[in-house]
Amino acid sequence: MVNFFICGVQKGGTTALDRQLRSHPALEMAQTKELHFFDDDSLAWDAPDYGRLHLAFTDPTGPRRRGEATPIYTYWPRSLERLQAYNPAAKLIMLLRHPVLRAFSQWRMETHRGWETLPFSAAIRPPGRLRVSSAPGGVHRVFSYVERGLYASQVERMLKLFPTTQLLFLRTDALWNDFDLTLRKVHSFLDIPHAPPGEHRYTVSVGSEAPAPLGLDDAEYLSGLYADDISATARLTGLDLRDWLEPAASLGEPMRP
Q1: For the whole prediction, is pTM greater than 0.85?
Q2: pLDDT tens figures, 113-170
C-alpha cells in the first residue's frame, strides 16, 4: 500500500515538499513525481490493477512509509474516490495557495509550454472559461485556472471520504516563510521523526518567467470571485485565511513559480 499522498494543489509548492520528503530515511517517495494514477480515466476502475502504482516504488515490502505526489487528485473527478477505495487509511496532504496567485502561476506555466495563447485577462473570463465548462465533465487539465482555485468543494469531497485525522491542510506561504516549522507539521502528521530541511528548499519549475505581470484589474476581478469560497475553505479546513480577503493580498506575494 501507498500510505500517503500529496494530493493538491497544482502550483501550490508540492514539488518543494516532495523533494524534501525524498531525503527522509523513513519514507520512500514514488520514483516519479505526479504518477497521475488515480486521475487516469482510461483504467478499468471496476476492477483496478494497482501494479503500475506499486512499480513506482523500489522497496514495496520494506518498513518505510510510501508516498506519492500528484496535485490534480483534489480537482479531477473521481480521483479521491478511487484513492479511498485503494487505501481508506491513507493520509492526504493538501497545500493551499492564494487562489489568484495560483491561477496566475498556472497560466504562466501553460503559456510557457505553448498550450495557452490567450492573455491572462481573457483566459479567466468568458469565453476563456467556456473551454472548461464545455469540456467533458466540466473539467479541463490545462485551462482550469479559475476552477482549480475553488477549494471549498474539493475539501468537502476529502472530508466526506476521509476522517479529519487523515487530512493535513497547509498554506503554501507557510511552507515558504517557515519551511522548517511546516516540515515539522508534515513529519508529525506522518508519524516520523523530524529531519531538518535540506539545502534545496524550492524548485523553479517550468514557466517561472512571466510574459506579463499580474494586473490589478485581474487580481481584483478574481478576488471578488473567490471571496465566498475562501471563507468556506477557512471554515472547512480550520485555516486562518482572513488575510486572503484583504484587497492587496493577491498582489502581496513575492513572485514564485
Answers
A1: yes
A2: 999 999 999 999 999 999 999 999 999 999 999 999 999 999 999 999 999 999 999 9
Encode pLDDT of 42-95 as tens digits: 999 999 999 999 999 998 778 899 999 999 999 999 999 999 999 999 999 999
Place of cell 477505495: 85
Count of structural domains within the chain: 1
Among 18, 166, 145, smallest CA distance to 87 is for: 166
In angstroms, what CA-CA distances link 184 with 30, 97, 143, 168, 219? 21, 19, 34, 12, 33
d(CA 222, CA 170): 22
CATH of the domain at 238: 3.40.50.300
Cα–Cα distance measured from residue 205 to residue 183, given in angstroms and rounded to the nearest whole number: 21
Range of the domain at 111: 4-251
